[in-house]
Each structure stands twice: as C-alpha cells, then as structure tokens.
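Work Package 3 (structural annotation) set out to generate three-dimensional models for the target panel prioritized at the project kickoff. During this period the team completed the workflow that converts sequence records into discrete structure tokens, so that structures can be stored uniformly alongside our sequence database. As a representative example, we reproduce one entry of 145 residues exactly as it appears in the project archive.
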Amino acid sequence: MKTHEVNLRVRYQETDQMGVVYHANYLVWMEVGRSEYMRKLGMPYTTFEKNNIYLPVIKAYCEYKSPAFYDNIIRVVTRVASLKELKITFNYTIFREEEKEQTLLASGETEHAFVNNLGKPQILKKHNPFLWRRLLEVVEGVEDL
C-alpha cells in the first residue's frame, strides 16, 4: 500500500500554556494528511460529495509518543489501511523533522463510513463503481504516488 507525506509547521495557536502541542491537534493533522492523500489521488473530498458520498469519522485513535512544540516541522505519513464496501480506514504516523534525525510523535488511525447526504450507509462498490475501483487500485498497490 502506498503512502503520502505532508509537512506542516506547528503554529503558536496549536500549543498550550506549557508550549506543547495540544493533543487534539494531532487529529487535525491526520485530517490534513488524509485530505492531501485523497487530493494526490485525484479524488478530493469534493469529488465524493458531488457523487453524494460522505466520509464521516466513525472511529479515531491516537497514541502519543513524544511532544511537539511551536515552530517544529512535522511530517504526517498517511496510508489506506483497509477498504471495505461500507468503510475505509487510514493509518497515520507523525514525526518531528530535525536536522539529522526524526522523532516519532504519534501514530493513529481513523475509520470512515461511506454515507449519503442523509447519513444512510452506502455500498461504494454499487453506488459509484468508478470511485470504488480507483480506491481499490490504491489499496492493492497499483497506484504510484
């Protein structure tokens, strides 16, 4: 399975009074990683929404390893972990980029359902075979990012 990487700089507003990145911001960074991954595939969320498919988060997990601080450069590595007819799961690894090394900050996962605009589950394979095949290519490693 292919991965996609995006670099971000920690903003002051993302830190708490101790100068450490507030824990919920890691989920925001995962969203950035996921959005950029899908955009790189040529399937931004707007493509799904135009086809009446939405991807709400139904599970989220984050394990924190080391803190991030204001002005750090971080790298979010995203990959599709699994694809099923009703849901897709992404894995994330977040690193702090330093001069000659990198530090693992966190790892996590989000699971998303395929639903329509009314929140009803949609079998993507039936609802939109094109998007299903495109995602399947990525999961099977056909796509080269």
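The chain has a mean pLDDT of 92.
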